[in-house]
């Protein structure tokens, strides 16, 4: 499991840093390096230069976003592997690729030299993370309504490839689903204009606008239901109820409400119910099973 270094106190951002022992070295370094380059930092708690080098190399590795992994080896606790690799002084740093050491250095280094070293090693990773698989996993989390995990994974993908539109859209939708509207709006504002012109992003922005509108209307749900019960032909109340239901998270009920409105009077207010339904489709996602089922119902209502 990736964890933080033993020599630093703040490990919260150490996504690609792990502590390795003599027992785990074969799996965590030799075998791992056959798929992802691994940099090994031999250090000790009493070593002053190690405390200087450690945070800088961890930062550089984390900034490589998965193209390289840092393995930390405390030589006080793992003398066997240090002796086997003939570590004479610390800090000593080795880079492993395809199970073999390919580069390294000893002693403290300026941050610029460390960054250059990590970049050189990370460039040996020809494949890097499989972003399509990561997006597939993030979408699965989203479908399972695990919006927090989905958002974290989409955010990680964006850090690797900021132009991955599927991840940008997914991240916006995850923030919306978590009702973090301010964060979603701030993120959208940070996007360049070209990104905002993509259809996926346009739909995600529309989803935020719709959610803001629906969130403010969600408190009116009960009053609107009573209104419709007393007057089933109150099309305006039906329209408002659909938006309120959407804001309450009752997505399927919101779609059904609009489909019923279209059945009652599809031409009301220049087909306002159908237009609102199409907005919902875009906000939810055209391939969502709920949307696919609603589209079939819409077709049967319009063409019966």
What do these coordinates show?
Helix 7 packs parallel to helix 10. The chain is elongated. It is α/β, with parallel strands linked by helices. The N terminus is likely disordered. It is built from 15 helices and five strands. The protein has a five-stranded mixed β-sheet with strand order 1-3-2-4-5, sandwiched between helices.
List keywords for this structure.
304 residues, alpha/beta, 5-stranded mixed β-sheet, 15 helices
Largest sheet: 5 strands, mixed
How much of the sequence is in beta strands? 5-15%
The helix fraction, in percent, is 55-70%
- Total count of strands: 5
Shape: elongated
Could you give the distance between the termini? 58 Å
What is the topological layout?
Layout: E1 17-19, H1 25-31, E2 38-43, H2 48-63, E3 69-74, H3 79-84, E4 92-97, E5 100-106, H4 111-122, H5 131-143, H6 147-160, H7 165-177, H8 181-190, H9 193-196, H10 199-217, H11 221-230, H12 235-247, H13 251-265, H14 272-284, H15 289-302
Parallel strand pairs: 1-3, 2-3
Antiparallel strand pairs: 2-4, 4-5
């Amino acid at each position: 499991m990736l964890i933080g270094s033993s020599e630093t106190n703040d490990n919260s951002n150490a996504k690609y840093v792990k502590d390795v022992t003599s027992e785990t070295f074969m799996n965590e370094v030799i075998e791992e390096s056959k798929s992802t380059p691994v940099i090994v930092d031999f250090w000790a708690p009493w070593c002053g230069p190690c405390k200087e080098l450690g945070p800088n190399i961890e930062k550089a590795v984390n900034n490589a976003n998965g193209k390289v992994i840092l393995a930390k080896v405390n030589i006080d606790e793992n003398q066997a592997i240090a002796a086997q690799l003939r570590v004479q002084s610390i800090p000593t740093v080795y880079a492993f690729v395809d199970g073999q050491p390919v580069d390294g250095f000893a002693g403290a280094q300026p941050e610029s030299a460390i960054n250059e070293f990590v970049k050189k090693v990370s460039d040996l990773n020809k494949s890097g993370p499989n972003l399509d698989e990561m997006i597939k996993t993030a979408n699965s989390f989203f479908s399972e309504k695990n919006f927090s995990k989905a958002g974290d994974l989409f955010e990680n993908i964006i850090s690797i490839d900021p132009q991955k539109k599927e991840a940008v859209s997914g991240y916006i939708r995850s923030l919306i689903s978590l009702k973090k509207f301010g964060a979603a709006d701030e993120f959208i504002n940070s996007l360049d204009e070209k990104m905002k012109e993509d259809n996926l992003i346009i739909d995600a922005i529309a989803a935020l606008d719709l959610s803001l509108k629906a969130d403010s209307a969600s408190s009116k749900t009960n009053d609107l239901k009573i209104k419709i019960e007393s007057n089933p032909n109150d099309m305006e109340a039906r329209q408002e109820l659909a938006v309120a239901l959407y804001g309450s998270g009752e997505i399927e009920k919101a779609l059904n409400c609009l489909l019923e409105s279209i059945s009652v009077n599809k031409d009301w207010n220049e087909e306002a119910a159908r237009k609102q339904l199409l907005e919902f489709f875009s906000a939810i996602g055209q391939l969502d099973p709920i949307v696919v089922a609603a589209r079939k119902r819409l077709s049967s209502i319009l063409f019966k």
